[in-house]
Design goal:
Length: 133
């Protein structure tokens, strides 16, 4: 009887330690950002620029992540609803189309967006800086 009791005690102790470690491990893991988008610009000459935009908190490889996150926040996370944040900014009228894409999620909702701008400058200005990289 004593052997069974000792074995049961060891098993319960091992289980308790395992649950404690698992519990601590989940607390130490950082939560993923609420919003994460992979943005790309496909140029006519075949060049492709790609960046990662993280929001809530702002970060990633986007050169102006805070500005881009604010623009998307103002648009309710809808890239199609982005507006120029610098109206009246002059861009050269050079026809060099770029295809802009955003894929990922915004506050848990999926985002799949693609559009074409007349050039990279217009992509930056007309997207509120989201496609300014």
């Amino acid at each position: 009887m004593r052997t069974f009791s000792a074995r049961l005690s060891r098993t319960l102790t091992t289980a308790a330690c395992t649950f404690a470690v698992l519990g601590l491990g989940s607390q130490a893991t950082a939560a993923p950002p609420e919003s994460s988008l992979t943005l790309s610009l496909h140029h006519n000459d075949g060049a492709v620029a790609i960046t990662q935009l993280l929001c809530d908190p702002a970060g990633g490889s986007h050169p102006a992540s805070a500005q881009a996150c604010a623009a998307l926040d103002d648009a309710g996370g809808e890239p199609a609803a982005l507006e120029a944040v610098r109206p009246g900014t002059a861009c050269p009228m050079i026809h060099a189309p770029v295809r802009a894409s955003a894929h990922g999620h915004w506050r848990g909702e999926p985002v799949h967006f693609t559009t074409t701008y007349n050039n990279a400058c217009l992509a930056d200005v007309e997207s509120g800086g989201v496609f300014g990289f």
